[in-house]
Amino acid sequence: MTAFRASLTEFDIRRLIKATDADDRASAAHKLCRSMERAPLTAEDREAAQKILRVMATDAAEMVRRAMAVTLKASDLIPHDVARRLAADVDSVALPIIGFSPVFTDDDLIEIVRAGSAVRQVAIAARPKVSRDLASALASDGCEAAVRTLASNDNADLSETAMGIAIDRFGDSAEVVAALAYRQVLPLSVTERLVDLASEAVREHLVTRHAVAPETAIRLARFARERATVDLVDEAASNADLPAFVAQLNARKVLSPSLMLRALARGQMALFEHGLAELAQTPHHRAWLMVHDAGPLGLKAIYDRAGLPPRLFHAIRAGVDTWRALQAEGIDTSGDEFRQKMLERFLTQRPNAPRDDLAYLMERLDHAPAQVSARSAA
User: Fold this and answer.
1) Residue 156: exposed, middle, or buried by beta-carbon count in 10 A (0-12, 13-18, 19+)?
2) Of 283, 249, 345, which is closest to residue 257 (Cα–Cα)?
3) Helix pair 43-57, 10-18: axis angle to 10 deg
4) Which of 14, 82, 99, 283 is the most buried (most CB within 10 A)?
5) CB-based contacts of 109: which residues, under 8 Å, 6+ apart?
6) Angle at the Cα of 287 (from 282 to 293), degrees rounded to 5?
7) Contact 121, 138 (CB under 8 A)
8) Cα–Cα–Cα angle for 80, 86, 87, rounded to 5 degrees
9) What phi, psi does 156 have (nearest 5°)?
10) Where are the alpha helices (DSSP H) in 39-79?
């Protein structure tokens, strides 16, 4: 008699099969499963053990089936048909097996993913090893939590295509974007897409940890400078010598069309006017007249003289019109509340502006000043 058979006493088996108390059967199941897992098994022993496991899998008591699932979750002893049966059981029984069992095929797991249970998708995404085909199925059909878990699992074989699908589906989820960004290896195309979606901290990680194209690094640096400039004007516009400030920006070659659009969309009309005057090399009062008092062609004339690109004019026109409409409503154009309303109304027009500029403005909209939010709530 082998050590395995010796450990399976008639008492244990009788207790498992005949005991009326579920606690007793669960205790017997745990003991038997632990003995099976630890003992060296001959082919005959393995066949006998699997017969016992089939009995456990049909036990009416959930706690008996769970005892088996938890004890043997990572074991190859469980027969394939029993594993599939347990995977179709209640979550407390199914999840340990789904999350660890090596006896499942990719087809088995993909079938579970496509059945749509979020908690089971997450369990599969966190498995110790996720094949490329399974990872692709999760990226395509998994819920957000499952895709985030998959992206966080460096033992998941995520292809470039699967990462792209995950970004297409959940690019607006900061958690999914961050999980992808912190993977050990990222294709260049994925890094480039994540850079445009990530928060500042994650973006910095991407640029320093992963390769990005030189033009992307330059664009990000320019984006950061322009945002910092507009934010500085937000804080200091009331006290600064704006003409001198704008002249300094132009001398540093950062008085760009993008900066002009962003400033206007956030209600900084004075900065926009002085920027036009500086670029067009004309006095501010003349630039003001061209923007506000020279009819529909005045803005276009000063815009062209300033050398700004034609592709941005319609967005600039929308910004000026929005500013005038709000001013006509009697709102104080110097306050934070006006700037927030200006930004909201400008964005609702879906202006034909570059993606980077719209991303910046949406970010600013998401970070409304606390006092404005409080007033809106009231």
Assistant:
1) buried
2) 249
3) 20
4) 82
5) 98, 124, 127, 134, 137
6) 145
7) yes
8) 90
9) -95, 130
10) 43-57, 62-71
| Chain centroid to CA 183 | 13
130: helix, coil or strand? strand
Extract the tokens encoding 18.
């005949």
> Tokens 């961050």 belong to which residue?
178
Residues in contact with 35: Cβ distance below 8 Å, sequence separation at least 6, in sequence order: 4, 7, 8
| Structure tokens given for 193 | 């897409």
CA angle 209, 211, 216 (to 5 degrees): 115
> Residue 14: what residue type?
R
Q: Cβ distance 272 to 249 under 8 Å?
A: no
CB 260 within 8 A of CB 315: no
Encoded tokens for 317 = 């026109």
Listed in sequence order, the residues at least 6 apart from 90 whose beta carbon sits closer than 8 Å to its beta carbon are 62
Buried b (16+ CB within 10 A) or exposed e, 69-94: bbbbbebeebbeebbbbbbebeeebb
Q: Counting beta carbons within 10 angstroms of the beta carbon of residue 197, is it exposed (0 to 12), middle (13 to 18) or buried (19 or more)?
A: buried
> Amino acid letter at 326?
L
DSSP letters for 6-29: HHS-HHHHHHHHH-S-HHHHHHHH
How far are the Cα atoms of 185, 191, 197, 200, 297 from residue 178, in angstroms, in the given order? Answer: 14, 11, 9, 11, 47
Token code pair at residue 44: 């005959």
Per-residue pLDDT of the chain (378 residues; tens, 9 = 90+): 454 454 555 555 666 666 678 888 888 888 888 888 888 888 888 888 898 899 899 988 999 999 999 999 999 999 999 999 999 999 999 999 999 999 999 999 999 999 999 999 999 999 999 999 999 999 999 999 999 999 999 999 999 999 999 999 999 998 999 999 889 888 878 887 887 787 766 767 776 666 566 566 555 555 655 555 555 456 445 546 888 888 887 887 778 888 888 888 888 888 899 999 999 999 999 999 999 886 768 899 999 999 998 888 888 888 888 888 888 888 777 777 787 888 888 888 777 777 766 766 776 665 554 444 444 444
